[in-house]
Amino acid sequence: xxxxxxxxxxxxxxxxxxxxxxxxxxxxxxxxxxxxxxxxxxxxxxxxxxxxxxxxxxxxxxxxxxxxxxxxxxxxxxxxxxxxxxxxxxxxxxxxxxxxxxxxxxxxxxxxxxxxxxxxxxxxxxxxxxxxxxxxxxxxxxxxxxxxxxxxxxxxxxxxxxxxxxxxxxxxxxxxxxxxxxxxxxxxxxxxxxxxxxxxxxxxxxxxxxxxxxxxxxxxxxxxxxxxxxxxxxxxxxxxxxxxxxxxxxxxxxxxxxxxxxxxxxxxxxxxxxxxxxxxxxxxxxxxxxxxxxxxxxxxxxxxxxxxxxxxxxxxxxxxxxxxxxxxxxxxxxxxxxxxxxxxxxxxxxxxxxxxxxxxxxxxxxxxxxxxxxxxxxxxxxxxxxxxxxxxxxxxxxxxxxxxxxxxxxxxxxxxxxxxxxxxxxxxxxxxxxxxxxxxxxxxxxxxxxxxxxxxxxxxxxxxxxxxxxxxxxxxxxxxxxxxxxxxxxxxxxxxxxxxxxxxxxxxxxxxxxxxxxxxxxxxxxxxx
Length: 529
Fold this sequence. Notes:
This protein is of the alpha/beta class. The chain has helices at residues 16-21, 45-61, 79-89, 103-113, 122-127, 192-209, 225-237, 249-259, 268-273, 300-308, 390-394, 432-442, 473-479, 507-519; strands at residues 26-29, 42-44, 69-72, 93-96, 117-120, 140-142, 151-152, 172-177, 187-191, 216-219, 241-243, 263-266, 290-293, 316-323, 327-335, 346-350, 355-360, 373-379, 385-386, 397-398, 401-410, 416-421, 446-453, 459-465, 490-491. It has 14 helices and 25 strands. Helix 6 crosses helix 7 (225-237). The longest helix has 18 residues, at 192-209. It holds the Pfam family AMP-binding. This is Long-chain fatty acid--CoA ligase.
């Protein structure tokens, strides 16, 4: 079903269809666009389509040609996505790089791209990127500011707008990077065909579960492939769209109190930070019908808290389990009533006729709760390869089955349960993710808890409290009583946690930091006593 009539999803014409059908469809931002601050924060689909075409014309005039690779690395904002679409409109291949990446990592990815163009701004160029970056690229374009050895990239409202250059559906259409939770991010090569295949199961689910016209509020990394499918569904359905880059609860509460969104799409850890919105007397969550999270499993406590604040009759949580390399592969919907009783490790079922999943044993025994196996999936949404690392990509394939890098099992009814990442398994402890769910559900004061191997590989919980105050050790001991023995909890602040562009905790890096601090003194990060 993912293949039938798959004509591709093209970023170069992403806004064109919606601009013809409903040109005044609203796109509201919480920030101005660096490439067009004069447009303000209240945009329309038509304005976005025009802006993409104007920037594409500017790129053509600067001799960017079909097939060229163009990296986009600038200060955070929705114009990252618009510039990505403009690059694709020229027929070039956009390489979307998160502004949260360090300059050194970006330089390494630019080297891997083999002489690309680079779109950036003065702040990133001077403050983040290494001085020799201009030697790693064909040309460096600045959307704001100026610097020696670079070329200004500006929109021209009077420019002659040309039709987009359509590429083959199986040709590279977009490069995004993985979250980098285990090592340097990999560059994932998407095609128009694979993006359309990812769009289809999500569009089907949205059509079945969301019947009316709802306002979609999105807080998703502007370089993630998930943003493509989420916005494509909203544009097709004519949903008003609210796009934010500031995830702080105070700012989000002000925005949601005004627009009263019906559908929320964000990273799971972002939803945890938004839990206080449920107690806001202005009712910023009162109109929420659907809560959607794709990037990772979400804590049941968070789902119950947010859905519990809705005044809709049957609000629900749509959980999708996937990966940058394959898109969503399984999913399930949970009602408000069942949110707390639902198993947070259960991520759902494959999409009939579209995706498939299997669990392969790790140790010769049938996969189950005590012996999780390797999770493998099949989907036409699978990316083409890792750019410059095809051998690495092929190692994760087995006759068309893609190894997700997670371990888990399937229940007798076929529901997939994810226990841990392969590299995060702590021998003899059980599922660290399940332990974290239990601790989060029992301790409302926790903003985050992560169990990683600490000194001598012993399971060590790292906690972040919501108000930054000290952890209540008595309540902690009571909450952890039924879990396997752990070392005393280590308390950090949220800013001290190493996280990816999609707000995932970099567990291997966190474990390394704990080991380093055990070997030497580290202020304010001692185990709680």
